[in-house]
Amino acid sequence: MKIGYVLAIGWLVLFSACTEIVIVAPEDGSQWAEGANVDVIIGFSGSVPVNESTFSASLNGENITPLFTVDPAGATAVLTAIDAGEHALGVSIRSVLGQTVSDLASFEVIPGVAFAAAREIVDEDDLIGGPMARGRPGDYLMANDKIRVIISDVGRDPVGFVAPYGGHIIDADLARGPGEPGNDQFMAMSHMINIEGTFNATDIQVINDGSNGGAAIVRATGLDDSLDYINASQLIQAVGMSIPLSVPASADDMDIPVEIVVDYTLNPADNYVKIKTSVKNIGSGLQGLYYGDYIVGAAGELDQFVPGIGFGEPLARLSLDFIAFRGEGHAKGLAYGYIPTITRDSTAFSETGVMVTSLGQNVVGVLLLGVPPKVQILPGSVFSYERYLVVGEDVASIKDAQLEILGLSTGILQGTVTVAGEPLEGATVAVVNEGGPNDSSYDVLSAFETDEDGRFQGNLTPANYQLMVAKDGYPYDSGTTTPNLTFVTINPGATTEANLSLPETGSLRVTAADVTGAPIPAKASIVGFDPSPPVPNVQSVLGLLELKGSVFDDDRGEGVFGVAKAIFMGMDGDSGEIPIEPGPYEVFVSRGPEYSLFSETIGISAGALTTSQAQIARVID
Asked: Cβ(200)–Cβ(166) under 8 Å?
């Protein structure tokens, strides 16, 4: 008994003297922004080993031990979705004799404070989610109070498409509230290095995680590599133009001696990531470089917009102030933007949903005349260029970011769109000037989308503009086949108010059932002449090529002649109320060749709901 007592006293003295536990982070009394993840770092010292069974942690009295990774030197955890207010963190180590050493720290989470963070993803809670999401543990998250993006880890991605290697942005979304699912609609953006090459990251590091209150920075380093999922030469040949286009031999699947460093920077309160690419010539001779990006932004429910031509997916963009991808359907209220800082001679071409930007060099001259690259890098020298990826709500929010990034003088345009005195949500207010570039009808500069209160607001450079307003299913404000032009003047530092209205429209509800009366999926084609047809905007290139765009979005673009609207009904066989302009129409309801065809003549009146109850029978087994 005497010996046992002495041993117990010895262990107690040893444990008390040699084992300490210290909360390294968060610091006692520190403050954190609401929405920011709180990094917890615990340090151990002493000769008595510590493991998961002897370590414990609590937050405000609740056990959070399972969140920690424990090793002999310390323990770490990331606390997510912490509510605003004061919080108490407690940690302790327990000896085999039941004795404990502990430490306490308090910290405060403050609502409305901007922050930025970057970290490797180890917890699936850091993934964005959504229909286009591809992120996985091991990738890198950059987040602040406005947006979240994911950069792919090193290695080859078998489903990478335009981003088959690590070091590229593969997911992006607005910051969402606790419990709100992510809605990534952005497929990928990857480097265009010498037209047919891209960037292959061999190392990725978090240069600054943002915990110091500054910008979050992730750096990827690597080499150029072939982009074998998509080939620019094949894209160009697929165009099928009557004039010969080709990739210059110096860029046709050529491996070039360069080292590449890419810095991704996200500042607190910004809704954009700066992408700085530095290309070093490690060869012995002069190295020419075509440079830009491959972008697949329209893979989700997104419509493309480029200033000048407007909405649509023409083969080429002859100017490139910015590119916007505006969400429709489930992506409504979400938009992405690509903003180059080099706009002179910057252009783009696209095919099969892939947009290829050529920065600082006209792509038509390169593909048509074989113009050599303007950028020539001396041996041992570095060429750097920057551009930005924006996550916003509509085209106008992308324009706002562009003006902020370039530091241009601005004024504010704001207003309300109404119908019969009531606010109209989801209307498009296009900002144009008559007489656009390359013989087009309009220079389409931006586009607002009204909120639930019918409001729109954004920045424009000081100048005179014209506004056009439309919403699918509503007549134009002119009462004719083209909308009115409303003239506005934007002055520096001033606010201009422009209130617009659309006439009252009608609505249609179509239901589909089989011969037993059971609901059935079907398609309804509403045949008739659209009283408010699309407003096309066509550019001509040397009389050889027509580039087709539109003042309003793709849903108002060219469709089947005589079909005013196509409606698809799900398993409930119910279209719901669909706005449609007043006038006579023919409703056709079908479900493939196995079923009979239903037709009915209807009239749509302003302010009234018209119903069409279709019944179709299976005629082929």
From this structure: yes
* Nearest CA among 54, 34, 32 for reference residue 42: 54
pLDDT reading at 53 higher than 70: yes
For residue 51, what pLDDT is reported? 76
The predicted-structure confidence for 526-569, as pLDDT tens digits, reads as follows 999 888 988 999 988 777 678 889 999 754 434 566 888 899 99
Q: How far is CA 382 from CA 190, 258, 278, 448, in A?
A: 20, 9, 6, 40
What tokens appear for 500 in the block? Answer: 């617009």
- Residue of 313, 307, 186 whose CA lies nearest to 239: 313
Which residue carries 């509230």 as its tokens?
Answer: 177
Cα–Cα distance list, 455 to 334, 357, 426, 500 (Å)? 16, 33, 10, 10
On the question of pLDDT at 97 being above 70, the answer is no
334 phi and psi, to 5 degrees? -130, 140
Residues contacting residue 375 through CB under 8 Å, at least 6 positions apart:
288, 289, 290, 291, 360, 383
Task: Give alpha helix (H) positions in 142-293.
Answer: 232-239
Burial class (CB in 10 A: 0-12, 13-18, 19+), 501: middle
Alpha-carbon distances of 355 from 293, 305, 320, 527, rounded to whole Å? 8, 12, 12, 34
CA proximity to 77, closest of 107, 103, 54, 56: 56
SS (H, E, C) 478-527: CCCCCCCCEEEEECCCCEEECCEEECCCEEEEEEEECCCCCECCEEEEEE
